[in-house]
Amino acid sequence: MARCEVCFRHCELQEGQTGPCGARTASGGCVRPVFYGRVSSLALDPIEKKPLARFHPGSMVLSAGGLGCNLRCPFCQNHEIAQADGENGFPVRTEEMPPYMLAELAAHYRQAGNIGLAFTYNEPLVCWEYVRDTARLVHERGMLNVLVTNGCAETGILEQLAPYIDAMNIDLKGFTDRYYREVLGGDRQMVMAFIREAVKRCHVELTTLVVPGENDSEEEMLRLSEWVAGLQDVSGGRQGREIPLHISRFFPRYRMAEKRPTDVRKVYSLVKAAEKNLLYVYPGNC
Asked: Which CATH superfamily is domain 36-284 in?
């Protein structure tokens, strides 16, 4: 039996057993990443697409995705690579790309305006060892690393990655324990602890996807933005109220394909509410 220490589940796995994230397995008495050195998705994206509004705006970043996720968001837009399909695993192919190869690819695209590498699309922390090893090589080439994550991980994982990560976009998907537990299959307190430490280490921006009837009240947004504004020891001497927040519109996806999109007016009303506590609030998907 081996215990995984990545997220709140702390899965106890038998030899050869894979956790519900679909990406970590017990092998030789340890829990190891299943897809180390495997990439499912690659694209040269605008940095604003991560989304990062106040980190090297106007630049491009090579974006890489793997497989797996430790949450179960029913609206996942990348469910093909994030959610395992029962015994069939993931319905996509991957390409072998060890850390040195991905770092070299990032350096190759400098000529196209690339500033570095973004770990994104699925949940990168389920294979944090690959993120660490690759990000170190990217830094050695004088380039930057971006992590796009749900933040549902132990702060010990953050300690391992912090020396090599220059910016993060972290999902703060809502501000009730019920929503995280019953809808997302996650742990809000763990995400908040991760954010609390991350803002001390690098540039951080947050994203909240507004789902109708779930996390779309003005009261909840006021409490969320007030908590963000109160964060201490923000990197670069910033105050908590200077942390950018992206409030994004929901579109029907995956197991919420029948749900209506978020009303654009609702998004802008929540932006206005968050601006009572934060300096930089951005509507998304509108």
From this structure: Aldolase class I (3.20.20.70)
